[in-house]
Amino acid sequence: MKTIGILTSGGDAPGMNSAIRAAVRTALNKGLRVKGIRNGYDGLMQGDIYEMNVSSVADIIHKGGTILGTARSSEFKTPEGQKRGAQILEDYGIEGLIVIGGDGSFKGAKALSELGIRTVAIPGTIDNDMGYTDFTIGFFTAIETVIDAIGKLRDTSSSHGRAVVIEVMGRNCGDLALYSGLAGGAESIIVPEHTFSIDEIIEKMENGKKRGKLHHLITLAEGVGDPYSLARELEEKTGIETKVTILGHVQRGGSPSGVDRLLGTTMGARAVELLYEEKTDIALGYVNGEIIEVSIEDATSKKSEFNEKLYEVANSLSR
Ligand code: ADP
Ligand code: F6P
């Protein structure tokens, strides 16, 4: 192995830069050449590839986003596109590739591995929706962002005696709504993994009001339902004014938390060691405090398990 490539793909996540920095520096320390591929598989298809050196990754450990850029590519989803991608990598002399991204990006990495490119995949997504790993890079920073927003919304909601529905990201996964709702002290948490009862929320709102509670904070995972119709119904049935805040892409940005920097750094360095040992088709994860290695197929086929215990704790604390 003489030359490796690195790309970030899918939605960006804080901590991707920590992984890029660790991978590039570890590779250079081993005497490998490193090529950065801009804008994920889309950049690969266009041959948007450049030589990286120590300075390419200077001063980035604390930066949100990804210095490599990211994108989605429909061409790369096709077998022809993947063949063309593998050929471009070969043309650039890239024998090993590090892919940092979510589930879709991992499937692309698997396809390249089947086409003879050695690949290691690193989980980067704020959604924490990958079942084979306890946590993905970016999740903890996004939690901090949501907690910050919840705190601010609590201030204004209490001042006005209002309720607020806070829509958070997560695609089909309720982890961000659950963890940030629990850590932020939300009274109600709505996730795709559980059917929710509007009557229960109404009861909580009314009981809270009777006890002199001045706010009711609800985290709602995106995709579960329309936050505006939920707020309207709650307001009509309780008489408590209910606002909506959609946090949106603000959750994807920001300086990575300590945990995300550590996850990115350890996984970035490990990915290079594996490629250096000529390994392929490996997904790195974090389970019970250890960095683990599984096949990409195993990583993508394991369904994300919802943390029922945490959900119960959240519900029991907010009665
Ligand atoms: P994420 O990696 O965050 O899940 P996407 O699902 O958007 O994000 O996937 C990112 C990119 O990975 C897609 O634009 C596409 O190029 C590639 N990809 C997604 N699914 C597949 C697949 N089944 N096979 C090959 N490549 C895929
Ligand atoms: O994968 C992360 C994520 O932030 C999801 O939670 C969200 O549904 C999606 O990406 C939105 O991404 P974009 O607006 O970039 O398509």
Could you please describe the fold and organization of this structure?
The chain is α/β, with parallel strands linked by helices and 319 residues long. The protein has helices at residues 16-29, 40-45, 79-91, 103-114, 139-160, 175-184, 198-210, 227-238, 258-276, 296-301, 308-317, and strands at 3-8, 33-37, 49-52, 96-101, 118-123, 163-168, 188-190, 216-221, 242-246, 282-287, 290-295. It has 2 domains: 3-138 and 256-301, Rossmann fold; 139-253, Rossmann fold (3-Layer(aba) Sandwich). It is built from 11 helices and 11 strands. The chain has a 7-stranded mixed beta sheet, with helices on both faces. A 4-stranded parallel beta sheet has the order 7-8-6-9, with helices on both faces. Strand 1, helix 1 and strand 2 (33-37) form a beta-alpha-beta unit. The protein is elongated. The termini are far apart. Bound molecules: adenosine-5'-diphosphate and 6-O-phosphono-beta-D-fructofuranose. The site of adenosine-5'-diphosphate has 17 residues, from helix 4.
Question: Which helices and strands appear, and what pairs or packs with what?
Answer:
Blueprint: E1 3-8, H1 16-29, E2 33-37, H2 40-45, E3 49-52, H3 79-91, E4 96-101, H4 103-114, E5 118-123, H5 139-160, E6 163-168, H6 175-184, E7 188-190, H7 198-210, E8 216-221, H8 227-238, E9 242-246, H9 258-276, E10 282-287, E11 290-295, H10 296-301, H11 308-317
Helix pairs in contact: 1-9, 5-6, 6-11, 7-8
Bound molecules: adenosine-5'-diphosphate (ADP) and 6-O-phosphono-beta-D-fructofuranose.
